[in-house]
Amino acid sequence: MTSSETLAARAARLHARSEQLRETTARRRQALERARDHLAAVEGTASSDDGLVTATVDTDGVLTRLELSPKVRGSTPHALAHVITGVVRRAAADARNRKRAVYESLRAEGAVSKVPEMPSPDVGGPLTLSSTTPVHPTTVPARSPRPDRRPPRISNSDHDDGPPSSWLLRAT
After folding, report:
1. CA distance 107 to 104
2. Measuring CA to CA, how many Å separate 85 from each of 96, 108, 113, 124, 148?
3. CB atoms within 10 A of CB 94
4. Beta strands in the chain (DSSP E)
5. Is pLDDT above 90 for 155?
6. Which one of 24, 31, 39, 137 has the fewest beta carbons within 10 angstroms of its own beta carbon?
7. Which residue ranges does the record annotate as region Disordered (predicted)?
């Protein structure tokens, strides 16, 4: 084999390799574009175990829809808040799992080397309103007294026996 044949063979191998890399790069770019579109459209949905509360979140875990059954009437506000919060967390976990699946497909195609960290929230135990004791509509839970939120009285030693001076006015 002459040196020109060796150079021609090497050039052919390099050309074939560059074509292979070009095709691989194009395939990965297309996969990334598809993934970007899929990630933007991800939604997560979850319902309470009794089906009375359903929540949907967007790709960032932001609540986009909350559905409450008419049967939630009579539930305590605390119980309803607990179930809604848990259902929203479950919906966010669902969205996170869907995003993870998109990244896993990218990793399988070689477009990314690893899946980004996406911690899973603690979604807790069973979420149901049917096991809570309904509150009669006329029953109102007692409220704890509010702390005094008035600003502290500032003593003005020159005028202690008169009315307090306003904190808005400059003391003279």
Report:
1. 5
2. 16, 35, 35, 10, 30
3. 20
4. 44-47, 53-57, 63-68
5. no
6. 137
7. 1-24, 114-172
Residue 54 has what DSSP assignment?
E
Nearest to 61 by CA among 99, 101, 34, 35: 99
Q: What is the dihedral of CA 130, 136, 54, 68, to 10 degrees?
A: 140
Q: What percent of the chain has pLDDT over 90?
A: 37
Backbone angles phi, psi at 65, to 5 degrees: -155, 135
154, two tokens: 């500032």
CB neighbour list of residue 11: distance below 8 Å, 6 or more residues apart:
none
Which long-range contacts link 30-33 to residues 24+ away (Cβ below 8 Å)?
31/105, 31/106, 31/109, 31/111, 32/106, 32/111
Tokens 């309803």 — which residue? 80
CA dist 46 and 121 (Å) reads 14
Token pair for 60: 């960032």
Question: Amino acid identity of 105?
Answer: S
Helix (H) or strand (E) holding 108: helix 77-109
Q: What is the pLDDT of residue 134?
A: 42
Identify whether the C-beta of residue 120 lies closer than 8 Å to the C-beta of residue 135: no
CATH ID of 7-132, from 3.30.1310.10, 3.40.630.10, 3.90.1010.10, 3.40.50.300: 3.30.1310.10
